[in-house]
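subagent[fold] <- orchestrator: predict structure for attached chain, return tokens only, no commentary.
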Amino acid sequence: MTACPTTVPRWSSSPSLRRCSGSSTTSSLICSSRSPYRAHREAEVSIRRSTYFCAGLLGVVAIGYHAARLSGVGVTPPIPLALPLDQLPREFNGWTGKDIEFADNVVRVAAADAYLRRDYRRSNGEAIALYIAFYGSVKDHIPHGPTVCYPCQGWSEELNEMVSVPSEAKRFPELKLRKLVYSKAGARMAVLYWYAANGRQQLDTTWQKFTAALHDLIGGGGAYVFQLMVSAPVAGRDADAFARLEEFARLVFPAVAKHLPDSAADPPPALDRPEAQE
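subagent[fold] -> orchestrator:
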């Protein structure tokens, strides 16, 4: 899907001509005989119509998708993981993991088809929490990440940026991770998280939901969402906490990637998407 073509006129510097010019997908806008105010209002109407058109298109897709889900037409069955999440190794180069069970209400709200919550520790006392959620079919809600969960629990966001981390995983030689810092009542938490939809890394979960729904609707072999998050308390410098998290992410990700449904497939082509907040 491409962005809607909207154009804001650029007014001419010549008062005698009193004209404006702008490009669109169809023609240039020339308003030599109209006042700047009227032309500006017409441009606003054009932009508004384009916005309504895009919103309407998304609505039609959503309605068609949900109708297809109800009728069973064009909707593929849930995709299984290549390996159960509980088969992820509990030992990684000095890190030892212990599974943590969520309360029933948390599992119900998350509505994941599979999840893994595990705390890894080293002999020096350092700890990292790992969370994986897998959705084998498109759900009726968007699987959200820490940018929703932490603020809902009263944490304040201090940092939100993207970072690239090298990986030895065949399909993902470079991980696009969201780097976050949250604070609450004097405590601070460093977080790295990663999303994939149908084998592609995604930074924008809204776009992820839309592309996965389309994939499911047109019968493209199924749609899945995979979320990975690692976090650790910040005891000193932020840089030290993130150094441990990035080291841990590089260490565990090749094993994590083996659980993806399409783990044996060739790497997907690069997908250029503008960076977006959740």
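orchestrator: received. Logging for downstream: The chain has two domains: 10-71, 85-257. The chain has five helices and eleven strands.
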